[in-house]
Design brief:
Radius of gyration: 23 Å
Shape: elongated
Strand content: 35-45%
Number of strands: 9
Strand order of the largest sheet: 6-5-4-3-8-9
Helix content: 25-40%
Number of helices: 5
Distance between the termini: 71 Å
Largest sheet: 6 strands, antiparallel
Structural class: alpha+beta
Order of helices and strands: HHEEHEEEEHEEHE
């Protein structure tokens, strides 16, 4: 029968089928690993008349633990970090700039709206997807004044975003120590800048 033929072929070459199965499993696990968290899709330092502006796109996916906490009234704080370094072969690197921006994401159960605040500004959204979408796009954020970068030199810029667990209420900070669900953040994304 066809089942017997398949089983016989499988037994004759088990390593081939095992390798295919392991490859498929590793691809599935890699997909799951990137399904939740924060990744940097792209970033650039854009020159303008008033200086240099950071523009970046992130891929942000909140897991069910964070969504549940948010919908129960726990504010989530996201920290955008940016730095510019001038590499020096003869000494330690020179850190030209290190800047941070905190975003506060909350849910109001009375209005059924999500609010994203940064600095003294805030914006309301009808859905969590819309709020996260807005958080994912950094546009025209001034980070460097004119003259801070010397022409002809090559600098290394870096950006990352992470959930700032230090600003969570104390009981949730303890949960964050014990669970990976609370520790989401991107790796540093670095690129070269030559004015």
């Amino acid at each position: 029968t066809s089942m017997t033929v398949f089983f016989t072929r499988f037994c004759k070459k088990p390593s081939r089928y095992l390798a295919l199965a392991l490859c498929a499993l590793s691809l599935a696990l890699a997909t799951l690993a990137h399904a939740e968290g924060i990744d940097v899709r792209n970033a650039a330092l854009v020159p303008g008349e008033e200086g240099y502006f950071l523009e970046a796109d992130f891929e942000i996916s909140l897991n069910s633990t964070l969504e549940d906490a948010l919908n129960k009234g726990v504010p989530l704080y996201f920290l955008l970090e940016f730095e510019v370094i001038r590499p020096r072969w003869y000494w330690f690197n020179d850190k030209v700039l290190s800047a941070q921006q905190t975003y506060r994401l909350t849910y109001n159960s009375l209005t059924r709206q999500y609010r994203l605040g940064f600095g003294s500004l805030f914006q309301n959204f009808a859905s969590l997807n819309e709020a996260v979408d807005f958080l994912s796009r950094v546009r025209r954020r001034q980070v460097l004044e004119p003259g801070m970068l010397d022409k002809g030199n090559t600098y290394t810029a870096g950006v990352r975003m992470r959930l700032d667990v230090s600003q969570l209420p104390k009981p949730f900070q303890l949960n964050a120590l014990a669970s990976r669900d609370w520790n989401i953040g991107s790796d540093w994304h670095r690129w070269s800048v030559t004015p």
